[in-house]
Amino acid sequence: MRSWKQTVLTLVVLAFVSTTGYKVQAEAVNDTQVLHRTVKVNDLDIFYREAGPKDAPTVLLLHGFPTSSHMFRNLIPALADKYHVVAPDYPGYGHSSAPSVDKFEYTFDNLANVVETFTEQLELKKYSLYLMDYGAPVGFRLAVKHPERVDSLIIQNGNAYDEGLDNKFWVPIKEYWNHRTTEQGDKLRGFLTLDATKWQYTHGVRNTETISPDTWGHVQPLLDRPGNQEIQLALFYSYGSNPPLYPKWQKYLRKYQPPTLIVWGKNDQIFPDAGAYPYKRDLKNLEFHLLDTGHFALEEDGDKIAQTMRSFLHRNVATSN
C-alpha cells in the first residue's frame, strides 16, 4: 500500500513532467507561431506578419498584386523554425492603411520608401528578399540602394528584364503608360473584377481544386473598397517606371552577385517564364526551378517552394550568419 509521502511525491513528479512538457511544447509552437502586428510608418499603419527567432537570419517577403502578406500565410511557419520571417502589406493592400490617391502618392518609388522605412523601424539590418510580382520592383529598389543589406534573393514570378513583359497581357497596360487617359484607365478596370482575381489564382495550375477560395475571398473585398480601384490604376501607371530601371537592376546583379533562387510558375501569363531565363545571363550563383503551375505558385507548390528555400538558405545564408 502506497504511503501518503509516496503519493505526494508521485503527484509532484507528474506535475513537474506535465509542466515541463507543456513548456517545451509551447516553445516549439512559439518558434513558428505567426504574429500579426502593425507599425506606424510615416503616419501610415503598416500591417505585417512575423514569426521565428529575431536573432536568426531574416527573410523579408514582398507580396504581389492584388494580394498582400496573406499570400505567405503558409510559407511563414514553414520557415520560422530556422529564420526570422517578416511579411508587410503595402499601403493600399491587405490590412495596411489605404489613403486615397489624393492623400498618398501610389508609385513604386513610394512603396519602396515605405518598405525601407519599415525595415529600419524593425531594425532589420540584413535580409533575404522574396520578390514576387509587385515585390520585384519594390525589392530591387531596396537592393540597389542598400546592396550591403541583401543576403540573398528568392525570385518567384518577379520581373527584371524586357523579355518578361513581351506578351499580350501587358498591351493595354503599356498603352496606359503612353496615354494616361480616363478612357484608357477604364479599360483596365476589368483586371480588378472577381473573375480576373480568380483567373490569377487558377490559370495555369495543375488542379484548380487545390486552390482555396479563401484567396480571392480575402483579396476581392479589399479591391472593392471605395477608392481602391483608383489606387490600383495609379500603380498600373507607375509600373511603367520599372522597365527603364531594368539595366540598373541587372547591373546590381552582375556587380554584387547575390546568391539567387528562382522558383517560377512557368504557366503564368502575366510574368511568363521568358522573364525567368534572362537571370542566367547575369548571375553566377543561381539555382533555377521552373514549376508546373501558375502565377501564385505558392498556392499549389508551397511545400516544394518551402523545402527548396530551406535548402538554398541553409547553403547560402544560415551558415554565414
Automatic annotation (TrEMBL):
Residues of the AB hydrolase-1 domain: 57-301
EC number, UniProt record: 3.8.1.5
GO molecular function: epoxide hydrolase activity; haloalkane dehalogenase activity
Pfam families tied to this protein: Abhydrolase_1 (PF00561)
UniProt keyword terms in alphabetical order: Hydrolase
Protein name: Haloalkane dehalogenase
Gene of this entry: dhaA
